[in-house]
Amino acid sequence: MSKHITAIASYGRRAGSSRVRLYDWIDFNNLKASEEVYINASSNSFRKLLSNPRRVLAAEMSLREIANSHKNGNLIISRRATPFSNGALESKLLSSATRGVYDFDDSLSAVQQVGVQRLWSLSKTWKRAVATADIVIAGNDYLAEEAGKFNDEVVIIPSCVNPNEYRAKTSYESVFPRAVWIGSPSTESYLSLVAEPLLRLHSKIGLRLTVISSGDTALGGLEPMVDRIEWSPDNYKDELAKADIGIMPLVDNKWARGKCAYKLLQYGAAGLPMIGSPVGSNQTVLGRSRNLISNSADDWFDQLDDFFNQPDSYREALGGRARELVQNEYSFQAWQQTWMKAVGLEV
């Protein structure tokens, strides 16, 4: 059986979802892949698209050439192929393949677009791609249930990490209390949910917050306690272990319930204790690793305050359980056979 695959994504390798759900799997399995990345950017904003008309035209022509071919073999689409689609092109691409695979890790069916973007509905694209694919890969059970309404062949594969690539935390002594948050600019707004308890802890115990992101937006008043680190593929795996605890606040809505707890998995890969909101996959990851779950602002304050008053052995136990869970249940190694089988390749 061949180990070649055609991989189609809207974004390049710096974009979190495409990297985690597609490119990391290609690299981990040493696959020969024909990678079709729209304009090879981390964003397809209309400003960026309008400033690159030749690249947009070339991408549209290339996708149609692939769709019109009947020799595509194994083909996988991550989220969508083009921002100018209601799913017809994705459906044709998947139908043209010997095995058409559609992968997603967000609640795309819940996306409500406004303005000119309504002409190219992401939710409609998702529905047509799910219905057409030979098999759908969903990031968690919530997403799988949504996809299962339109396709009987759905497999759950979480967003995975490779713990061997992370610097593992070795010392759990907390001299200068520090939390860490990692994520994309679009998710930085979740930090405002815990700004008040974090600022109270900053005043009480000197807590600081490292934010690893390529964003630079305001953080709801958290700026006095924040140290920003520009995300790069070379630095984040070492930076996490420098903190005492990783945080993942979420609001409870349909979009957040589709989240795959990837931040928590990165913290766990580094052996970092973690705390988060009990929303979607967060509940599963935190519960199974017996780490900290917080439901309210007061809860965030009380649990973090207690966390820093506990002995080093307590923090080490949390971090150890987090890393063990990731190694056993959320690593590329643990899901390799399932992913390869889903895309129709051999291990």
UniProtKB/TrEMBL annotation:
This is Glycosyltransferase involved in cell wall biosynthesis. It comes from Paeniglutamicibacter sulfureus.
